[in-house]
Design brief:
This protein is of the alpha/beta class. Helices cover about 30% and strands about 25% of the residues. Helix 1 runs parallel beside helix 2.
Length: about 160
Amino acid sequence: MSTALHGLGSSLPPPADEPEDAHLFLSASIERRGSAVVIHVRGEVDAYTLPTWRRLLSEAVASVTATGPLVVETSGLLFMACRSLVVLADESERCRRRGIRLSVVGSWSVVTRVVTVIELDALLPVYASVEDALAESVPDGRPHVAGRCNAVAPVRHRSEPSA
């Protein structure tokens, strides 16, 4: 499988709300694996770099073919604000409308918990590795059900009978 790495963020001028030095705090590169696109992000995603985060994601999505998946690999991030996950979920929704499957690779315990707590797990499946995300499987062998992360047991409603 051939791969190619390309930097992101240099082809377009930054939007008006993006700080000039944001690239010092957040950067990304893109890797092609067949029809799949993997964006490797590094740095911090916070209120200061949020416009850069949006732009990098938009550029990555624009590079995906209609049938290929997009994997956002976050192991290079030192900080990721909850708002950045909401932006990622919004981008995932736009991707789904185009037939693109967006998934996230990150620390299984941290990213998955935050995604689950803020109830974005249906839009943002989280995997432990890029290979797992591309294979659309969960590392521990459990099935990935309806786009939901399986790190936390599902909450049963009072009206549901217990198993």
